[in-house]
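User: I'm designing a mutation panel for Cytochrome P450 and want to avoid disrupting the core. Could you give me a predicted structure to guide residue selection? Please restate the sequence first so the numbering is unambiguous.

Assistant: Good idea. Sequence first, for numbering, then the predicted structure tokens:
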Amino acid sequence: MSPPTVTIVAFALLTVAVSRFLNARNSVNCIPGMRPLFAPMSLFGAAFGTRWWNPGLNWPWEWRKTGFFNHTHDVISLVPLISGGSSVYTCSVDVARQILAAEGKTQLFKPRWIAASLWGENIVAASGDQWRRHRRIVAPALTPKTYGLVVAETIAVYKEMIEGENWSEDKEILVPDFNRLPRKIALILISRCGFGLPMPWADTPADQSRLTFGKSLTIVTETVISRLIIPTWLYKLPIERFRIIDQAWSGLSSFMHTFLETRKDVQRGDTDSTDEKQRGDILSRLVAAMSTDGKLNLDEQEVIGNIFTLMVAAHETTAAVITATLGFLAIHEEEQEKVYAEITTAILASNAPTLDDLQNLPYLLACFHEAMRIYPAGVAVVRELTDDISIRIKRPIEETMVLRQGTLVVIDMIALHHNPNTFPEPDIFKPSRWAGTSEHDVSMFGFGARACIGRKFSHVEALCFLALFLRDWKITVPVSATETEREMGKAGINGLAFSVGPISLRLRRRK
């Protein structure tokens, strides 16, 4: 190719790139913001990680102190120069409420992305009428009876943990990578209480060549991003890591279909399990919807999609916040003693907590909420606008801003909960900031009608476990509090949830 031709081709490509960029910038009304090479949620943006030149998936956390022009703007735009679509981000609670308030009026569209692309349509991924259909099926399973079962099973699993970890006689224990314990507890509880699936603490396979249900689900939750990125043909290569990932995903799918068929047999009356017939758990509701005509019908893939998604989302998010709560209480011993005094007042040492007892633990709940504020398990709420909407912003100046139809809006939950305009001293663990706060104002579970359906389940599970654990053990950090806080700063997305990095805790038996 001659030099003039090369010049012409280069100029043409540059012209196309500039035109594309200008169109993308205009699509977000030229709102100031970031102009990276790649969109954070694109393949290349995610692969390169967070660098000074590339936001990556973890930019909301890594840049939480300086993002949104040092929190002087309620709304910014992100227009990539090379790859990925443009989007609008907000760190304002007020703007988030305005946008999501339009959900019922304009039918905001929720991009399918991970949840639907991996498992099929489900309550997390669905939009509009489809979401309402899924919610009407799942919500009736979340009853006081279910929450009572969560309390009973949490007590049982706590005892299984003490025995399984050989802590029964120990007075002092050092637990490296404490994160694994809440993950295992939360996984067992959602399996037993939400789906009636047996999962013991000692999850040992009868056939050593196969992964257990629990191990398969653990691997699946840890490799969601890998499953999306790695081409299918790579799993056929003789690479042990890929082989295990593929075995876990295919094995979990097989487990799910087996459980589904078993529950279908029960509901048809093909077995003699009276207890199973009386179940009102999520799995029973989903299976019943397969044989229902009309608007509340689900096909088998939708049932599988809901099982996968609810299991992964429910156990990852709660476990992450439990770990963060204990990490902060280990560092801030004065807060831990306040919680201990509250627990021993609400629950006698010889008694197991009841569902009613948990309502007498407001400060423990405040600690849970504050840990969740600092490490929100759900990093973003994403919607695509199906119509133009107007929003009022306060920063940098008070004005009305129009967001156009087709705009991808990202409510940045990390930036929102580290916004000093809403939460003064956002990096400081301060449970008292939640004193007297109504459930409606606890924004970490989302906003409006589509706020997390499992909020109560998560509260009951977390409060019960934390009450049992903190009543029995005084927790400290094995290194300096400053070093531990620095280690806790190494947070990121693990599976589908945002969580603190690995932490170690020292446990001393109270009595």
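For picking mutation sites, this is relevant: The radius of gyration is 24 Å. The chain has one domain: 86-509.
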